[in-house]
Records
---
Amino acid sequence: MARRIGLNFHGIGSPARDLEEGEAPYWLSEAQFTEILDRVAAAHDPQAFVLTFDDGNLSDYDIALPALVERGLSARFFVLTGRLDQPGSLGRDHISALLDAGMRVGSHGIAHVGWTGLDRDALNRELGQSRSVLQDICGLPITEVGIPFGLYNARVLRALRRNGYTVAFSSDTGQMNNKSFLRARTSLRGDMNSAQFDDILASRMPPAKQLRRMLGMTKKRLLPLT
Ligand SMILES: [Zn+2]
């Protein structure tokens, strides 16, 4: 079965660094996070869920890792290499510990910028340099990215392939095709209630929203045409 539900997390608990503008709603309380993990672990098929963490917050290590291990779940962590070893963010040793616990690590770029707005050189640097730094830390090929802010277009997707990536996780919501290059996820937010978490875990989406999503993804994959 190639259909999965991608759940994307950011920070959990209290941030230990200054947040970016608009970032706060993407932080979950520890109670919200464990509620979602408990539902995944209790699901008929926990493998139907693909769990990812963007931004490389220290809560990935402090809170998410033990909670995942306790429930026998695994996840992917997309790290910003520009924040490595900064207060409130993962350091090199944390990344090694995530790998040792059976988690996967990928790139979220260097500086947390939207990739669609970068020129060719800057885009190659974001994708290539972050990849090589992570490969040095992990001693493994890094082939997956979490796309910052879900911003991509045809040029970004081409640059990802050119820089050696084989999988790109977006934020397009809805179901994920676990065999395709581009894999949709839904970001969980702290201002969502339990009923909204239920809809996301059940991958329930009104038909009008499904259509908008399909058209939006097609447009982003094809544009710009030049
Ligand atoms: Zn991010």
---
Amino acid sequence: MRVLVAYSSKYGATRGIADRIGDRLRDAGHEVDVERCDAVEYPEGFDAFVIGSAAYMSNWRKEARKFVRRNRELLEQRPTWLFSSGPLGTARVDKDGNDVLVGARPKQFEEYEDELHPRGTMVFFGALDPDKLRGPHKMLHWMPENDALPTGDFRDWDAIDAWAEKVAAELAKTPA
Ligand SMILES: Cc1cc2nc3c(=O)[nH]c(=O)nc-3n(C[C@H](O)[C@H](O)[C@H](O)COP(=O)(O)O)c2cc1C
């Protein structure tokens, strides 16, 4: 199957996850393009879609939201999976005992689940390198330590591989 992995990434963490998903899908025999959401020229040429964005302030980035809006009909008709790259740190549950990955689901997922009926949605831990921050995000440097976001690379490659392999296996069962 021809699969498009389309991503939106501000500082590169989500791009890394998209590349990795692309590699696993290729390993499984699919033909895969990994492209930025705003650089996709001919989405109609793909049989299936994996779309991912970093989450900022609980929202997917604008270019990913635009991609979904522009291609809504296509995504409704073809197998589609969504992923978000979000929470930082090593804690799996928050101070109230809630699953961090559930709490980090971007606001758009509920709407997209209703409208696109994706085959799956997933949240992965992300990464934050303070030296890369630009614009208003730089202010994070001056935040009191308690409020500051954890910095480091928390991407869980095993979880990413496992999810991508599941997507690949489901695609293999899907008639072209
Ligand atoms: C200002 C700021 C706000 C953020 N807000 C959220 C958020 O609301 N939810 C979340 O899960 N992650 C949040 N993050 C973490 C990023 O989503 C995470 O670092 C992500 O992996 C970055 O991906 P990118 O490098 O592809 O942009 C935030 C990070 C920054 C710097």
